[in-house]
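PROTEIN DATA CARD
Card holder: Transposase/putative transposase
Chain length: 80
Origin: Jannaschia faecimaris
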Amino acid sequence: MAKHRNFTDQFRAKVALEGLRGNKTVQEIAAKHQLHSDQVSAWNRQTIDGGADVFSGRKQSGPTEADAKDLHAKFGRLGV
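Structure generated from the sequence above:
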């Protein structure tokens, strides 16, 4: 059985942008990075679908500054 590989977000973005440029076919990109062509196509679709979020100005994950201050205050109270 093949080992499940995990890819970083940076690698996924690099491959997806390479595919969206249109200089190479999906098959060429997949062969270059030793991926299945379906995986490259899926990352391309995800990049297109999520592209509007890049320009929305909102952060996708992580606590806000107010959340962080609240958590630090709770930690301080718990430590006492």
